[in-house]
Structures
1.
Amino acid sequence: MAFDLVSRVARRFTCEVTAAVIGLAACLLPAQAQELKIGARSDIVIDPHSSWAMSNTQYFYHYLGFMNWLDENDKVVPRMAKSATAVSPNLWEVKLNEGLKFSNGAPVTVNDVVASYERARTLPNAIGTFAGLFAGVKEMKAIDDLTMHVVTSRPYPTWPATMTQISVLPAEVAKTATQADFSSGRANISSSAYKFVEYVPANRLVVERNGAYVGPKARWDKVTFRILTNNATRVAALLSGDVDMIDGVPPEDAATIAKDPRFTLYTGPSDRIIMLAMDSSRDVSPFITDLQGNKLTTNPLKDVRVRRAMSLAIDRELIRDRVMDGHSIPNNQLIPKGLGGYAANIPEAKVDLPKARALMKEAGWADGFGIALACPEGRYVNASKICQAAAQMLGRINIKVTVEVMPYGVFASRVTNKTGDRASLMLFGWGASSSGEANVLQNAIHTWDKEQRLGAWNIGMYSNPEVDKLIVKGLSTLDAKERHAIQAEVMTKAMEDVAAIPLHTQVVIVATRKGLKYTVQANECTLADFVEPTSN
Amino acid sequence: MIFWLIQRLFQAAFVVLAMTVIVFIGVSVIGDPVAILISPEAGPDERERLIAALYLDRPIWEQYFIFLKGVLRGDLGISFVYNEPALGLILMRMPATLELAFAALLLSVTIGVPLGLYCGLYPDSVVSKAIMTISIVGFSLPTFWLGLMLVLVFSVHLGWLPSNGRGDTAELFGIQWSFLTLNGLKHLILPAITLSLFKIALVLRLVRAGVRETLPLEYVRFARAKGLAPKRIISVHVLKNLMIPVVTVVGIELGTTIAFSVVTETIFGWPGMGKLIIDSINSLDRPVMVAYLVIIVLLFTTINVIVDILYFLLDPRVRIQAD
């Protein structure tokens, strides 16, 4: 007792001396709460199972448990799961870590996982439904508290990646929770590093450290996401010191922020690739005309030489330097470098006008033709500017392009309406976050097949039986290395045939105040625990 | 008076109904909400199930009647995006917008009326001419530019005021308000000024014109001849009479500010209804769009009724007519 008192006095004394010598801050610092304020580009749909989009998942990663996570390079890493093993081609055995707890103190069991996954699969009226992820899943069952079996009707090689997408709630919550329970926070029971504090729609999301979490301790006591969807507002919030960091920095502002000694800019490649899709299947494409504006009775895009010429006419480096202010990575295929399915043997996509013109002449289109480029606004960085640049570049091989900019909603409904006019040339993007590999192939390159759920986003209706066969083979290959090799082979063939024209990999741009360091996430998520204070 | 009020309410109800028809047809021709909201990797069966769940496979008139049936139960539809009742979403954001609109209104009246009065009474003074010239600027500056400039100067360069958001709020009548806390007031200043500059100029000019028009009138001269104090002449006889056009314009302006302060709310990250409607248009969230416009029409008709009642109190001629 006496010793205790002495030591307390001594400690106090030391503190006072320190305060006198070094300053009050040194004494107060340990007691001060570490708070991080992030200016975020996207709002949240607060029910974790109602809208499948990475822009929502990034928030759930903070305050809800996930079986697996994606690391900064889109690799699947275990989170609550201990392991996931393919016992047989149609059976995954998933093991849960021991001793996991929810923020309400209850232990995490496989029953919670199964109930949560069932909710994601069947939630009525979920507009961004997760149901697609469960296609081919016959049954999910708890073998014991820590073992789950997932029975599929065909091989499901990317099941571990699927588990990075769906949040886990306690079973009783998953079975009863309504939308209102998530808004109020009652249902947001965490088994992650942070826990939910409050959500004010269109305003802010606040999370704080979850003491019950057994994994690595959260880096911050409290994190506030200020939802600032307008680019200029977000940048102003950083510049005026209202927030510590912002995501989605517009490329045109990046240079100004980088030059300012008060801030640091962090950039890195995302998993999203921007491309031009072409109508290469119809005999007559409705938005292709001759130079006088009369509709053509043939479709020049069916000729691979024309498609190749178009790809050769586009100067991706110029787009990077002039349109994207240096913030894009020219790409020669439909998957960013480093992800599964990337083919190293594909030649670099370089501009070559003489060759492009020669190809056009050879194909009989030396005089060119007119075409409309459908361009979605509001989804990809600088979309309309990229479209205008591409249009001018294609003009150099006598293809007269008119750019039609439209909201993404209008664009998406028009190009996916398989019975409508669709479009002849489209700007389009694809992110690989849900699998961390070239899933663009089965979704946007495989021939449209309603029953097999393939090619739903093949908006150019490209079709190549040889490529299709290989894609299907890859889909049922469990071994990742082998599968990626097949995907790379498909990619090589598809690029050889110019199934689409890759432009660049989009870049993630994040800015922080001085004194913070951020590790950029390829899946475009903004995660608080990847922000660390530096010494200065 | 009561008969007149009932008549106005019936008119308002009809306007709301007609508006819902127009909006319903309008929103259903601009693209397919399912295409934008469903995940790119969802299969065709999920898509079809969803289309059926949202009644999007029914003909438009049937969708409209489903909507009307809901309205009778006080349900304006469920937001496609948030999966929450559209009405609740809008009402939740309404206090923020109302607060901003009334702050702007207060500024425009407390600054615009005295300045206008001064300019009307002393039209030839240098100060008046300067005020009138500056008011042209107030008229012509686009709000988004003004807002951005204010942020640049007062938040980014000087660092005096926060650049966005509502700041701390305090509860009154069960609703969160910014103007009750110092921090919240600080957040309110810039957006309120941005919204009010145009209105100050408008009120100022209306008041000035009114004063110039009223001063030479017979009754003012008579009052003066009777020996009334100038203060009383101006405050009772002049000001009361010229308030009629001012009240009309301010009423309409209040309505437009509440309904369409979209730009200001976006620039200042103000979590009001304007931001919600823009987001809803971008994501083709039809129920929210329709519910929003229904509420706005209700709001405008209410404001018009209030303006009419104010006429009643301000202008004896209207009272005589109604009787």
2.
Amino acid sequence: MITARLLQGGGALRWTLLVVGLVVALALPWFVYPPIATDMIAWALFAVALDLLLGYTGLLSFGHAAFWGSSAYATGLVAIHTGMPFYVAVLAGALVAAALAVPIAYLSVRRTGIYFAMVTLAFAQLIYFVANQWRSVTGGENGLQGIPRNLFGLDLSDGFYFYYAALPVILLGLFAAWRIVHSPFGRVIIAIRENPARARALGYSVDRYKILVFVLSAFLAGVAGGVYAIGHGFASLQEVYWTTSGKVVVMTVLGGMGTLWGAVVGAGIIVQLEDYLATAGIDANGIVTGAIFAITVLLFRKGIWGTVAQLLGRRRRDDRDAEPGPVRPATTTEEHADAR
Amino acid sequence: MIRTRGLVKEFNGFRAVDGVDLEIGSGTLHALVGPNGAGKTTLFNMLTGFINPSEGEILIEGVDVTAMAPEQIARRGVARSFQITSLFEELSLLQHVELALQGRSGQGYRFWQSDKRLRRFRDEAHELLDRVGLLSSAGRPAGALSYGQKRALELALALALSPRLLLLDEPTAGMGIEDVAKTIDLIARIREDRTVVLVEHNMKVVGSLADRVTVLQFGKILAEGDYDEVRADPRVITAYLGESVA
């Protein structure tokens, strides 16, 4: 509960965090190579989208690359063929991802735990297969090349300016995720995470809620994937590959599930780390990321953000029983297992 | 209010409920009793849609609910409590009751609105918590409650649905004498304008509350009647105390 009050319970701290976050977001391309900064915010939204499912609803999707990737392709195609502002292309891509999520959600939410993860993975592999085979549209192994950065005739070829063009889209996406979590609907999905049978006895149609949150999550993942594709100027098979699904899970868990902020932090760290290793010419990305992930999960089960929040919270233990605060975010995978 | 015909539930060849014809009248408080493993909870789970019967049918207020999902039955004005306390550990008591009240309103899909909307349930939620004696703990997480308090919260949640039919699965299980007395009082008050079905082991509770009692054994109805009739029934005494006593 302490963590909850810190992260979501309102008050000065929440606003401070928000201001700090905004300042960091605005200053990022001054400290970080701008294309990497764009990657960071795109992945941050992707990880936040996943957190809606993993942290708040207790569903581990291991196929979210399907939505990130399909939107990357769809965004690219719209940008190439219509020449519309890239905002429109990204929106179109996200809608494609959401539309794709409807049948996938419908068929997978009846499963829980590892079975849900496997079903979502299977669907993502299906999308991968289609992307690989459908060369005339996706470019197959060559990927979709030459995606333009159209925006009302502005010159965005410099990654520094593109970052600031992309940032509002990402912030809008992050705001949407925050809104969803702090809505009547958000209360219900948390209840479903905690105790699905109880939620049903209260009259909530658990499967429908899961489908809706899955589609919303896919939409936001699609926004992120679209921005990513525009930023890179191409969409490749990597975007729909299962390692992408895995990477976003690592980011969310590393940062701390069920906190939104944690996903952002996790994404920032992983993107920065991968860039550092690549620049340093160390070809051990998987081992390093994997080791950090393993250590975090073993020692700090609440993830980086969850642990920091807990440490900060110790100082505020006095006002424990003050205002009935909203939920404490989910923390460990064990708890999710229990909730089922 | 409730009618079941030839209700059967089979688990891998074991008939937990074996041909139950139950009739529960409107406005009555009906107790289901029986030794452990008699099929009471299975029957309960079928009435609330959590388990699908293998055979037979269930009518609630004349509507066939046999194939309905739990949430559909809940929305028909049927609320239940759980034998093993079943709450949302991380949510505060107030949030529990607000969630239950919102369930009735059908506005849980509104992901675009602020959760401040839930505040309009606050007065009603406070009232319900007061009714079960938990108002002073409204802001605490359910996980921090004592056992007896959790049982009381279960009741508050069931009441929040303002059910016409209330199914209580062992509301006093594991309670101390004092809490049992309080719970009896509470149930006596809340039964006023509704039908209540009670699964209960504690005969004191059954005796002081139930209009009618159905005794189950090995998944079948062994005896039915008012409390005194049932208690005097030699078959019931045998079922509870064994052959030697009878």
